[in-house]
Amino acid sequence: MSVVSGRQPLLKVEGLCVDVSIQGRDYAALKDVSFTVQRAEAHGLVGESGSGKSLALRSLMGLLPSNARVSGGSAFFNGTDLFANNGRNFRKVRGTGISMVFQEPAVALNPIARVGTQITDGIAQRKGWSRKQAREYAIHMMGLVGIPSPELRVDAYPFQLSGGMRQRVMIAASVACEPELILCDEPTTALDVTVQAQVLALFDGLRAELNAGILYVTHDLAVVSELCSSISVLYAGRLVESGSAAEVLGNPREDYTRALLAATPSIDEPGQRLRSIPGTTPALRDRPADYSFAMRIADHAPDSHSILEEH
Amino acid sequence: MTRFLVRRLGLLALVVWGVVTATFILVHATPGDPARATLGDKASESAVQALRAEWGLDQPLGVQYWHFLMDLVGGNLGTSFQYRSPIVSLLAERLPTTLLLMLMAVTFAVVISLPLATWVAVRGRGGADIGVRIFGAVVQGTPAFLTGTLLVIIFGLKLRWFPVGGYGSTTAEHLYSLVLPALTIALGIVPMLLNSLRASLTDALQSDFVAFGHSKGLRPATVLAAYAIRNGSISGVTILGIQAGALAGGALVVEKVFAIPGMGSLMLAGILGRDFPVVQATTLVFAGIVVVVYLVTDLSYALLDPRARLA
Quick check: A157 and B215 CB within 8 A? Predict the structure, then answer.
C-alpha cells in the first residue's frame, strides 16, 4: 500500500452489488451500494435484519457465504480494488490492512483454541514469532482492550470467559496487527448495555489511537449516534440515505430513516409503549426486485399509521 | 478426573463379569461334548468319561462356574482342551497379531476418510460430493467377507502386490501380510466415518470461527488445519469408538479369510473344537478390547476438546 495519497479515502465502495443464489436462482441482495470510510472516522451502516448490511461487510473481507457473490461494483482500499485480481487482493489486506469483529464471539472464536493463541496467531505467523513472544504480545493486547489480569486469562478457552470478555478478546485479535480499517458486524448485540458502552468506548479509543477507520454495521441508532460521524442507511439491499450523523439523525429525509428513529426506545419518554415498524423486510425470494419501504407501508397501511404520524 | 476413572473401571469390571457369565452359559448350552470331540468317535466311553473327569466336566455346572470365576480372578484362564497348553501363553502369541491388525485397520480408515471428507467439504456440493456418497453407499453395502475376497482377487491374485494369506515370520512380513486384511476391516468403518466427518467438516468450514481465522490473514492451510479440521474431526472419534465392536467382529471374519493366526482364528477353532476355555478366554479378551476402546474414546474427548475436560 505504498501508493497512498493524502486525500484518498481509506475505503471507497462504489456500486456494490451482491447476488445470493437460492435453489439455483440468483437474487439481488445488494444493489448499487456506495459509501466511503475516511481514516480515523467511524462510518455507520444501518439497517434492519435482511437489509444486506452484513453481506456488504463480508464482501469487503472476501468472506461471503458460498452461495453469495459480488456481481458488480468496486471497493477501493487505499487505492487497490479488493474485488480485482480474482480475490487474491484479500489475502494481502486481511489482518494488517482490514480486520473484522464478528457479531457473536461465542461462535466466532475457535472453541478449542486458547484465547491468547487466537489473538496472536495471525501476527505470529506473519512475523515468525515463537510461542513465548506471541504469548507476551497476547497479554499486552488483552491489557490494552481492558481485560483484567490478562496473564491469568491468556491461556483460558473462550467458554471460560464471559460474553463481554470474549468480545474484548475478539477485538484484541482484530487489532493485533494494527489494521487501518476495522469492520464491525454488530459487535455489541450479544452484550448487555453496560458492557456495550465499555466496548463502544474501546472502539472510539482504538479509532483515535490507531488512526483507523471503522465501518460499523448495526440496527441500533443509539450506538451509531454515539460512535459514528457519518451514516449510510440500507433498506432491502439499497442505500436509502447517507450523510453525516448529525444530518441524517437530526433531519432525516427518508420515511424509512424516520421510522427507524421512531422505533428507537428513548429514556426521555418513560412509560411509552415500544414502537415498531410495521411488518418485516420480506425474505429475498419473496420480494420484487424493486422492493421499497413505501411498498411495505402500503402493505401494512392500517397499523403503520401511528409511527409515521407521530413524527 | 480420578473419580471418573474409578467409576469407569468399576463399570469395566461389571461388563467383563457379564460377558464371562454369558459366555460360560452359552458354551455349556451348546450341544457337543469336548471330550468326545477331542478323542474322536472311535474312543471308548470309559476313556471319554476319564477325560471329562480330568477336565472337571463331570461336576455340577454351578461348581464348574465357581471354579472358573475363581481361576479368572487369580489370573488363570485355564488350559486349552485342544492344544493342551495354558491359554495365557496362547493369548500371548495371538493377541499382538490381532491388536496390530486392528490398529492398522483404524489407521487405514482414518487415512482414507479424513482426506476424502476434507476434499469433499472444501469442494462443496457437486460431482466430488456425489462420487464420494456413492462410494460410501457401495462400500457400506458390501459385507466384509466379500470385500476381503475381492481385495484378494484384485491385489493378491491379479496384481500380486500383497500376499493372499498367511502371516510371515519377520515384523516386516507381518506388516506386509496385514495390509489387505486391515484394509478389509477399514473399509467396513470408512462409510460411517466418512459421512460423519464430511458433515462436521462442512459445518466447520461454514462457521464464523473459520471466517474469523481467515479475517486475521492466516494462511488458508492453517485455517483448514487448526480451525476447521481440529473442530470437525471430533465427531470422527465418536464414530471410531462406536465402531469398536465392528472392528473386533471384523477381525474375527477377516483373520479366517486371510488365515491370520490371531485371536479371531483362535476363537473360531475353539468354537469348532468345543474348546470351552479357549472360547471363554477369547470372548473375554475381545470384550475387554471393546470396553477399553470405549474408555480411550471418552478420554480422548478431553484431549481434543477443552470443554469436555470439566464434564
Answer: no
Mean pLDDT by 10 residues, chain B (311 residues): 80 86 88 80 85 84 89 84 87 92 94 94 85 89 85 87 84 89 92 92 92 93 92 89 85 87 91 87 89 86 80 52
In 10 A of CB A110, how many CB atoms? 25
Count CA within 13 A, CB hemisphere, residue A50. 14
Which parts of chain A have pLDDT scores under 50? 1-4, 304-305, 309-311
Residue tagged 477377516 (cell numbers): B254
Instruction: Using a CB–CB cutoff of 8 Å, tell me whether B28 touches chain A.
Output: no
Q: What is the DSSP letter of B229?
A: I
Cα separation, B94 vs B265, in Å, equals 9
Q: Whose CA is closest to A188, among A198, A176, A180, A179?
A: A198
| A61: closest chain B residue by CA | B215
Most A CBs within 10 Å, among B209, B210, B300, B303, to test the A interface: B209
pTM: 0.80
What is the DSSP code string of B130-167?
Answer: HHHHHHHHHHHTS-HHHHHHHHIIIIIIIS--S-SS--
Report the CATH number that the domain containing residue B224 is assigned in CATH: 1.10.3720.10
A257 part of contact set with chain B, CB < 8 Å: no
Question: How far A143 CA lies from chain B's nearest CA (Å)?
Answer: 20
> Cα separation of B59 and B177, whole Å?
44
Nearest-10 crossing angle of helices B87-123, B276-304: 40
* CA atoms of B78 and B83, how far apart (whole Å): 12
Whole-number Å distance between alpha carbons of A150 and A119: 12
In a domain, B148, yes or no: yes
Q: Is A291 helix (H, G, I), strand (E, B) or coil?
A: coil
Spatial contact of A51 and A29, defined as CB atoms under 8 Å apart: no
Q: Does any CB of chain B come closer than 8 Å to the CB of residue A267?
A: no
**Residue contact A109–B124, C-beta within 8 A:** no
Residue A302 has a pLDDT of 55
Does B36 lie at the interface with A, CB-CB under 8 angstroms? no
Domain span holding position B168? 91-263
Instruction: Tell me if chain B has a CB within 8 Å of the CB of A181.
Output: no
| B197-237 residue pLDDT tens | 999 999 999 999 999 999 999 999 999 999 999 999 888 99
What is the tally of structural domains in chain B? 1
From the list B209, B216, B226, the residue facing A99 with the nearest CB is: B216
SS3 A13: strand
Domains of chain A: 8-97+178-254 (3.40.50.300), 108-176 (no CATH)
- For residue B217, give the nearest of A94, A108, A157 by CB distance: A94
Closest CA of chain B from A122, distance in Å: 5
> Using an 8 Å Cβ cutoff, are B145 and B253 in contact?
yes
Q: Are B19 and B25 in contact (CB under 8 A)?
A: no
